[in-house]
Design a protein that fits this description.
Blueprint: H1 7-10, H2 22-26, H3 59-64, H4 82-91, E1 97-100, E2 103-106, E3 117-122, H5 124-134, H6 138-150, E4 167-170, H7 172-191, E5 210-211, H8 216-225, H9 239-255, E6 262-268, H10 272-277, E7 305-308, H11 309-318, H12 345-348, H13 367-378, E8 383-388, E9 394-400, E10 406-414, H14 416-426, E11 467-471, H15 486-496, H16 509-524, H17 531-540, H18 543-561, H19 565-569, H20 589-599
Parallel strand pairs: 3-4, 3-6, 5-11, 6-7, 10-11
Antiparallel strand pairs: 1-2, 8-9, 9-10
Amino acid sequence: MSAILSADDLNDFISPGVACIKPVETLPSKDTKNQEDAYEVTTEDKVQPENLPPAQISLTDCLACSGCVTSAEAVLISLQSHAEVLNTLDAHPEIPLTHEHHRVTVNNAEDSGEGKIFVASVSPQVRASLATIYGISEKEAGYMINQLLSGPQGLRDGGKHGNGFTWVVDTNAMREAVLVLTADEVSDSLSSGESSTASESDDSLPKRPILSSACPGWICYAEKTHPFILPHLSRLKSPQALSGTFLKTVLSKSLGVHPSRIWHLAVMPCFDKKLEASREELTDVSWRQGDSTGSEAQPVRDVDCVITARELLSLASSRGFSLPNLPLQPLPSSFTPPFPEKTLDSFLSFKRSRAEQSLATGTSGGYLHHVLMTFQSRNPGSELVINRGRNVDVVEYALMSQEGQTILKAARYYGFRNIQNLVRKLKPARVSRLPGAKPAARPAAGRRQPISRNAVSTNSSGSDYAYVEVMACPGGCTNGGGQIRVEDAREAIGSSQGLTLDASMKPSPHEQRAWLARVDEAYFSMESESESELETQSQLSPLADKEAKIHERLRSWSEYMDIPLSKLVYTTYRKVESDVGKDQTPANDTSRVVELAGKIGGGW
């Protein structure tokens, strides 16, 4: 659920199917053994309140329960907060590193064996949110975050060990790899056959239409409520997950440390990213070769902790830092060591140009835009036709050849209200159980169908699409639930200027939309270190050359780790079945016999 546009404004919130039962399960049972009279009647004024411990709900509980279908924003989360970041920095010293001849190695003589290497990845939407609140550019917001996490005036200027983050990377680096692999996935799916079921025989390819899988709120919704959607989901990891896999694999091998000693923090615009980091599929079990650590070893997460843009403000205030007072310039070279593996350093140093983060690409990374541009470059003379829906979060695209033939159809669906319409289109027809019943007939192609209020047209079946970009938040990722709100901006600006502003006053819908427009503007007006040079390279280098470079880097990563690329970049999904209301005790033999006898018409 978005934090900028409320449920009252958009009617875009899906209520939980059932109430969360975890707090009830964790309440201690009342001890009645020592009571003299268990049936004593007491008036209300004599009843002493019970001091019960607060109920704790972990992210694992949320993933295993189908009660909530949106995010963890409405429940108490005991892990992955700015407090955990500070506690971890104080609990473990940094592993000492030595820089010699542009090479980074571990100083084993000073390593106590209890230290960790701290790394972080930051999304561009978070930088845009910070840029909006302080009136700076996105590039300067990136400098501010780097100074806080790694600089001498940031986290290193405090705490028990004076720790900071050795490397802070941009998730756009891994996003470029995901974009190229997404286009490959769509291309392979189309080449596998014309029918939507042609790829069913190949488990490595999702069914058409391929649905984006970078949004964890959308993935949780599909896993818990509509398992028939799972075969359509893209198998690719999100940029956050792929960044974690890349950092954990390369650093552990190049520095000779176990992945558990590398602590990865992700700064994201969405609370649901915490749930993604807690998935069992996104651990070293998916890519670890052999079992050298023993079968009883705990899996190591690719992303250890996720905080949002709002929690980044709390992280700074907890240490008494004022973000506007941090230098808005790059870190000194002494605080930016080179990446240990030089051949893969180009992966992280990749910079996006302004043309690659524009209004056409959207606010969620540009997955759909890259797929369309890839197929348009492969079909010279083709034209892109855009058909907008009844709201701005539903757009249908058709790539037409010079002869007027449809090459590719794709769409964009943002917000749960629109996602429900997409799911209804993809829902398989119900087959009657009656003997001799015919399968449900689909509407005739020539028959006029009513226009749906929230869809482009009910005539366009969901199976017509080759690819659909799906995001849970209306407006995309810049409107994520963890982004800085208008109320947070008032409080932060007031504290930095020594003023007392009323942060509790609820902003009007107009103020909320104006604020979101400013965040989008900051996101689209991104700058790079050498903008003119990158623009020139973008104009001179065709899209095919860029894809070839990405494939070469991915191949180098796989060869360096001696791990198949499929284990590094792909993930899996699972149907979540709720156990709410079910008896958790296993049935004995007698009860099973009675149940079977009842099913066949018998009984005792």
